[in-house]
Design goal:
Order of helices and strands: EEHHHH
Number of strands: 2
CATH class of the domain at 1-62: Mainly Alpha
Helix content: 55-70%
Largest sheet: 2 strands, antiparallel
Strand order of the largest sheet: 1-2
CATH architecture of the domain at 1-62: Orthogonal Bundle
Number of helices: 4
Structural class: alpha+beta
Strand content: 15-25%
CATH topology of the domain at 1-62: Ribbon-helix-helix fold
Length: 91
């Protein structure tokens, strides 16, 4: 079981706290660096788009969605992909 780390963040100028696992915090900081945004800007964006989900759940889904979108660019070479590559190589 992972220990949760509590940190303070600002959402639209209002301070609140969120508890995430260390790996989730690391991933969130990587996303912020990649996007050129502060932690607070990113938290505000996630909070605004969260709908009825609680903020912590919305943040975890945001992180998951970010990395899933990045992984779609990489696809393992399964049978269909190998056939596709073989036919394009022989053309």
């Amino acid at each position: 079981m992972s220990d949760l780390i509590c940190r303070n963040v600002c959402i639209s100028g209002r301070r609140t706290s969120i508890k995430l696992e260390a790996d989730m915090w690391e991933a969130l900081y990587e996303i912020c660096d990649s996007a050129g945004r502060s932690l607070h800007e990113t938290c505000t964006e996630v909070h605004r788009g969260r709908g009825s989900a609680n903020f912590t759940s919305a943040m975890r889904l945001f992180i998951l969605d970010y990395y899933r979108a990045g992984s779609r660019a990489w696809q393992p070479a399964g049978p269909a992909r190998r056939e596709e590559r073989a036919s394009s190589a022989s053309a």
